[in-house]
Write a structure and sequence with these properties.
Layout: H1 58-62, H2 67-70, H3 74-88
Length: about 90
């Protein structure tokens, strides 16, 4: 098993806050969010308003950016995460 290195998140990308479904409660989204739905906790710059806060879902806090997940740009990240979501449904 190969473990991929964690990279610095591309600020404003927000693919990980849009592409996947989240089944756990999010502030203002008590039932989580559907795949492809923008999280209400994203600000206008694509940054998480509850980053580092205790109310941030554990699934969000545990997700770490990697080169294969994030690709070269936000579009590649969205495509990768959308495909992962499709494969897990």
């Amino acid at each position: 098993m190969t473990i991929e290195a964690i990279i610095t998140c591309r600020m404003g990308c927000a693919a990980c806050c849009i592409a996947p479904s989240i089944s756990s409660p999010i502030p203002e989204m008590p039932h989580g969010k559907a795949a492809g739905e923008r999280c209400v906790q994203l600000d206008t710059e694509g940054l998480c308003k509850i980053f580092g806060q205790p109310e941030r879902p554990a699934v969000c806090s545990s997700l770490k950016a990697t080169a294969s997940m994030c690709g070269a740009n936000a579009s590649e990240a969205m495509a990768y995460l959308t495909e992962l979501e499709r494969l897990t449904v």
